[in-house]
Design brief:
- The complex is a heterodimer of chains A (115) and B (113).
- Chain A has 115 residues and is mostly beta strands.
- Chain A has strands spanning 5-7, 10-13, 19-24, 31-38, 42-50, 53-57, 64-68, 74-78, 87-94, 105-106, 110-114.
- Chain A has no helices and 11 strands.
- In chain A, the strands form 2 sheets. In chain A, strands 2, 4, 5, 6, 9, 10 and 11 form a 7-stranded mixed beta sheet that branches.
- In chain A, a hairpin with a 5-residue loop joins strand 7 and strand 8.
- In chain B, a hairpin with a 6-residue loop joins strand 10 and strand 11.
- The chains are: A mainly beta (115), B mainly beta (113).
- Chains A and B meet through strand 4, strand 5, strand 9 and strand 10 of A and strand 5, strand 6 and strand 11 of B.
Chain lengths: 115, 113
């Protein structure tokens, strides 16, 4: 158990819908990262938050957005869903202090299926 | 942009034998970290081993060790005394301190009895 929790584990929805994925980081970790794992694109970084502020953006679509709340949990919002958005979405957390102890630990992932 | 290349899509090893998974990366930075993550059929991403670029000594975690060649930008993973539970997808990853991971495409490891 990495200490990172993600809900829900599975999500099945229809095209055009909107969903919210939730992540709680490990105790003491200030940074949350969202990654998407699909068969054709591999593991791709979407977005990073550090202590409530957006820190870095990767290959995140405009239909996707995220935020990190004062208690440090994070939500990833996916809207106007398309079939191609079906993937495994991971959240990871780290201290993000820039030191040698800065390692990312992953949650179990949310499997999104868009029908 | 930093890239990570895993040139072996699939590898196979017999139980109790040793296998080496290859990884190369491209960067102009001097301070960075390298990781190997394991993804078993459960799809959980599990940290296997970490290497700081400033450390010359290769990292070791029980049966897992790395061969880090900074000048060659090579970071291979050696698994000794392979076990059935080692069967998984293995991802090599690069990161700058405090930032996101760049992953390779992965190597699928099959362990045969």
């Amino acid at each position: 158990d990495s200490g990172v929790t993600q809900t829900p584990k599975h999500l099945i929805t229809a095209t055009g819908q909107r969903v919210t994925l939730r992540c709680s980081p490990r105790s003491g970790d200030l940074s949350v990262y969202w990654y998407q794992q699909s068969l054709d694109q591999g593991l791709q970084f979407l977005i990073q938050y550090y202590n409530g502020e957006e820190r870095a953006k990767g290959n995140i679509l405009e239909r996707f957005s995220a935020q990190q709340f004062p208690d440090l949990h994070s939500e990833l919002n996916l809207s106007s869903l398309e079939l191609g958005d079906s993937a495994l979405y991971f959240c990871a957390s780290s201290v993000a202090s820039g030191t040698s102890t800065d390692t990312q630990y992953f949650g179990p992932g949310t499997r999104l299926t868009v029908l | 942009a930093q890239t990570v290349t895993q040139s072996q899509p699939e590898m196979s090893v017999q139980e109790a034998e040793t296998v080496t998974l290859s990884c190369t990366y491209d960067t102009s930075e001097s301070d960075y970290y390298l990781f190997w993550y394991k993804q078993p059929p459960s799809r959980q991403m599990i940290l296997v081993i970490r290497q700081e670029a400033y450390k010359q000594q290769n990292a070791t975690e029980n049966r897992f060790s790395v061969n880090f060649q900074k000048a060659a930008k090579s970071f291979s993973l050696k698994i000794s005394d392979s076990q059935l539970g080692d069967a998984a997808m293995y991802f090599c990853a690069y990161t700058l301190p405090g930032y996101a991971l760049n992953f390779g495409k992965g190597t699928s490891l099959l362990v045969t009895p």
